[in-house]
Design the sequence.
């Protein structure tokens, strides 16, 4: 009887493995075929054949480095501000007023239901009204400072709002795996201050969640076009669209390169988090 069960069990286990392989193969085709077609478009020249010139031209293209550095700076500022706003608020709600968790969740996920074009229209109207109302006051200089072309803080504030749903979900998944109340109470009973509890107790246990939130925000900032374009700024995504009309191969090469770099960074962080988890 045992031999019969042993022979039947592998046969029953085979279909799930087969379907898993089919799904993975379809996913690979879905993602890799467009990427391969994009790479072929950038390196294939109808006259000379294979040519890596678009990738070599990237580093000397006008506006490439400034726009990329601007987007990376905006991404770092957005990640820092979003985490500083979201993580303490989530901890305070979990520890002090758990009944407000649904309210905080609704507030953080609300940007998902607001169309970006409506969101940026509201920002534009607010900035125009602010220029009129604050012109006679000292705050007018501050309003102009956050719209500086060198580093527009207004984009950082807008991106923080857009990134809130992704940051909240990533941190919420990490906090659900921890007994936050026990960790905080133990640290407080040992005399730790609240900043020490946050940065030396809670944050080290949320490395994976923080990394996930950071990379989701990075991907959002690098690929966001609508808000920046309508407000008149030129970060990386806007620069790609600007040159796409005259230099199609170059714009696709930039997109492929940014996608590959994002994947490499994500895999590197995943590998580091996995190694740290195994070492524990």
Sequence:
């Amino acid at each position: 009887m045992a031999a019969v069960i042993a022979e039947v069990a592998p046969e029953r286990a085979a279909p799930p493995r087969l379907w898993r392989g089919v799904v993975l193969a379809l996913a690979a085709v879905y993602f890799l075929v467009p990427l391969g077609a994009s790479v072929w478009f950038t390196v294939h020249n109808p006259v000379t054949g294979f040519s890596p010139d678009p990738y070599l031209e990237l580093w000397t293209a006008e506006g490439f480095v400034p726009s990329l550095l601007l987007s990376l700076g905006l991404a770092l500022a957005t990640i820092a501000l979003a985490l500083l706003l979201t993580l303490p608020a989530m901890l305070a709600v979990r520890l002090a007023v758990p009944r407000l968790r649904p309210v905080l969740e609704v507030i953080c996920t609300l940007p998902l239901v607001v169309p970006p074009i409506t969101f940026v229209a509201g920002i534009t109207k607010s900035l125009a009204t602010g220029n009129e109302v604050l012109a006679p006051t000292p705050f007018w200089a501050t309003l102009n400072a956050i719209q500086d072309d060198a580093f527009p803080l207004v984009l950082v504030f807008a991106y923080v709002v857009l990134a809130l749903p992704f940051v909240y979900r990533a941190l919420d998944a990490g906090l659900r795996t921890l007994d936050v109340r026990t960790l905080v109470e133990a640290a407080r009973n040992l005399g730790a201050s609240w900043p020490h509890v946050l940065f030396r107790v809670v944050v080290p246990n949320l490395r994976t969640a923080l990394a996930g939130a950071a990379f989701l925000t990075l991907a959002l900032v690098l690929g966001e076009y609508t808000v920046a374009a309508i407000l008149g700024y030129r970060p990386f995504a806007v620069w790609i669209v600007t040159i796409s009309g005259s230099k199609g191969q170059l714009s696709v090469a930039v997109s492929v390169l940014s996608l590959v770099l994002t994947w490499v960074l994500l895999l590197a962080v995943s590998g580091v988090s996995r190694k740290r988890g195994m070492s524990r």
Summary: The longest strand covers residues 44-45. The first helix runs from residue 2 to 43. Strands lie at 44-45, 49-50.
